[in-house]
Amino acid sequence: MSENATEVITGVGVLGVAAGFLIYLSQVGGVGLSTSNEAVYSASFRSAQGIGIGTDVRIAGVKVGSITDMELDAATFRAETEFSVQSDVILPDDTAVIIASEGLLGGSYVELLPGGSVFNLEPGDEIADTQSSVSIVQLLLKFVSGSDG
């Protein structure tokens, strides 16, 4: 009897730790089953280098969402992205989207730059004002070669 009780207690403990880990992951990592409190927008980039599904979407350095889908448009050869934003964040219709870098060696993220328009974007709208990522290698090559353009 005592061996079975020990095995049951150990099994319950392992399942409890696993459940706790999943709860922690869903809260901290932004992984969740429900997206009802998020609005989805889209944007098209000439180059989406450095970002992928799950990349942070930030406003003023604060995470407000993440990239949910990304694929190549075969007709325009642009990266079509969809991203979610917390539903309590209202975006003006002149909001810009840029791919920014955390630093010289840091990762990339998507930054939203809200404008000053009195009209707001509706969930599902496409944000037209985009700026693609800047290649550090290309910048260094321009600097080394001394070319201006």
Structure notes:
There is one protein chain. The chain has helices spanning 2-28, 136-145, and strands at 38-45, 56-59, 62-73, 78-86, 96-101, 108-113, 126-127, 129-131. By secondary structure, it is of the alpha/beta class. The chain folds into two domains: 1-33; 38-144, no CATH class. Strands 7-1-4-3-2-6-5-8 form an eight-stranded mixed β-sheet, with no helix packed on it. A hairpin with a 6-residue loop joins β5 and β6. The protein starts with a helix and ends with a helix. The model has no long low-confidence stretch (mean pLDDT 86).
In a few lines, what is going on in this structure?
This protein is an alpha/beta fold and 149 residues long.
List the helices and strands and how they pair.
Elements: H1 2-28, E1 38-45, E2 56-59, E3 62-73, E4 78-86, E5 96-101, E6 108-113, E7 126-127, E8 129-131, H2 136-145
Parallel strand pairs: 1-7, 2-6, 5-8
Antiparallel strand pairs: 1-4, 2-3, 3-4, 5-6
Our Rg estimate from Cα atoms comes to 21 Å
What count of structural domains? 2
- Oligomerization: single chain
Number of strands: 8
Shape: extended
Low-confidence stretches: none
Order of helices and strands: HEEEEEEEEH
**Sheet with the most strands?**
8 strands, mixed
What is the rounded distance between the termini?
A: 80 Å
Give descriptors for this structure.
single chain, 149 residues, alpha/beta, 8-stranded mixed beta sheet
